């Protein structure tokens, strides 16, 4: 499994200048390649191949007075910038042809020197090296001072140097790491993600939502007000932008650290983990958008997925339209739709359900059923006889029921 290991880098002023030069050259090559392909398309010419594009915007461009300074940086950095452009075009064309899953991908856009995030990539061909003294040697940049929070499990295949909006530098290594299976355990868990409680487990455990963004809202509001009062283009405004970026970076780092610790604990304690496939993009367009983005469900489930694959655990997502909040986990009865303010309800079978705990139990049952139904195991709640008034067969009943469930599913 390929993993990324990120470390903080502290370049000297001269090394910062060399990195800024590399960032700029990579950006220029990317934009030149994009412009060449756009001009060829407008002129009705054939699509420029990757090799032809590399020859035009790198090899031949270095021989011109306008681009002679491209030779001041490593050639691998320029080649990787074009590789990013080629991947972006392939994703765009595959999305147009309907061969790519997910949302439609827009065509590549020009990069700006005012972008808050800059990055360059070095592969093994560039002969970057981690020295014995712990420094990272990059061609035509220097030996960068790093903070090693942990050792690399293997030799890296590439390293990406990143400068974020807060002005911090990071080195991100791609490493082929071996799987580390954990000892088998008996427990399995279903997880219902929410806003009041970040996660409710099928065993009844409720994990409170930390709400990092909400807690930092007062400080962020003050920093944004200070930024809005600064004159456009002034140095004071640039300093205020960095202060706002640092505050947001602190929120993102706190959320990421908390999610890593929680996901690791869940994977260690359970042999199988099942979660609901939430439509985060759609929920991000509602009035709950700020709380949804503050929760970070997508990044958390991604952590669960890759950690389960690495440690020999089972991870699965159930259908987002499964009526987990409206189904009795005891008798299996499907009750009517319930607004979000209804946190508990009583089933006609007499069982009083906590909405979130009941949903988590149903997520676990649905996940087991989808993974074990081929073996004939009974994992769903046992069926119960329908009341007499519900036993009749009506025209279009199946279709109308599906439509109601799809619209009112939580």
| Rg estimate, integer Å | 27 Å
Q: What's the rounded overall pLDDT mean?
A: 87
How many helical stretches? Answer: 11
**Low-confidence parts:** 376-410
Secondary-structure element pattern, one letter each: EHHHEEEEEEEEEHHHEHHHEEEHH
The total strand number stands at: 14
Helix content: 40-55%
Given the helix and strand composition, which structural class is it?
alpha+beta
Shape: elongated
How far is it from the N-terminal to the C-terminal residue, by CA?
Answer: 35 Å
Strand order of the largest sheet: 2-6-7-1-5-4-3
Beta-strand portion reads 15-25%
Q: How would you characterize the largest beta sheet? A: 7 strands, antiparallel
Oligomer: single chain
Short summary:
The chain is of the alpha+beta class.
């Amino acid at each position: 499994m390929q993993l990324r290991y990120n470390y903080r880098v502290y370049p000297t002023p001269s090394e910062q200048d060399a990195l800024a030069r590399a960032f700029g050259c990579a950006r220029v090559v990317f934009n030149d390649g994009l412009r060449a392909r756009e001009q060829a398309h407008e002129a009705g010419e054939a699509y420029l191949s990757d090799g032809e594009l590399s020859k035009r915007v790198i090899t031949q461009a270095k021989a011109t007075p306008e681009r002679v300074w491209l030779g001041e940086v490593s050639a691998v950095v320029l080649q990787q910038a074009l590789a990013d452009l080629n991947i972006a075009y392939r994703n765009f064309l595959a999305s147009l042809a309907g061969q790519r899953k997910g949302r439609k991908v827009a065509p590549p856009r020009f990069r700006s020197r005012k972008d808050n995030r800059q990055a360059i990539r070095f592969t093994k061909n560039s002969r970057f090296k981690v020295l014995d003294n712990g420094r990272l040697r990059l061609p035509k940049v220097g030996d960068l001072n790093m903070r090693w929070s942990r050792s690399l499990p293997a030799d890296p295949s590439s390293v990406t140097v990143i400068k974020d909006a807060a002005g911090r530098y990071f080195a991100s290594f791609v490493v082929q790491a071996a799987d580390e299976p954990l000892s088998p355990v008996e427990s399995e868990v279903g997880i219902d993600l929410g806003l009041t409680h970040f996660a409710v487990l099928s065993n009844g455990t409720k994990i409170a939502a930390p709400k990092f963004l909400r807690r930092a809202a007062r400080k962020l509001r003050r920093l944004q007000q200070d930024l809005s009062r600064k004159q456009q283009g002034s140095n004071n405004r640039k300093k205020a932008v960095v202060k706002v970026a640092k505050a947001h970076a602190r929120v993102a780092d706190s959320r990421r650290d908390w999610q890593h610790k929680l996901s690791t604990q869940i994977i260690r304690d359970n042999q199988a983990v099942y979660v609901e496939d939430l439509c985060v993009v759609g929920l991000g367009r509602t009035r709950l958008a700020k709380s949804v983005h503050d929760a970070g469900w997508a990044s958390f489930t991604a952590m669960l997925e890759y950690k389960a694959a690495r440690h020999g655990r089972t991870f699965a997502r159930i259908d987002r339209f499964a009526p987990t909040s409206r189904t009795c986990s005891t008798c299996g009865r499907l009750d009517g739709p319930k607004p979000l303010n209804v946190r508990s309800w009583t089933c006609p079978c007499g069982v009083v359900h906590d909405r979130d705990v009941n949903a988590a139990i149903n997520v676990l049952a649905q996940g087991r059923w989808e993974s074990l139904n081929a073996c004939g195991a009974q994992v769903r709640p046992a069926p119960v006889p329908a009341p007499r008034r519900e036993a009749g067969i009506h025209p279009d009943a199946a279709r109308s029921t599906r439509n109601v469930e799809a619209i009112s599913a939580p």
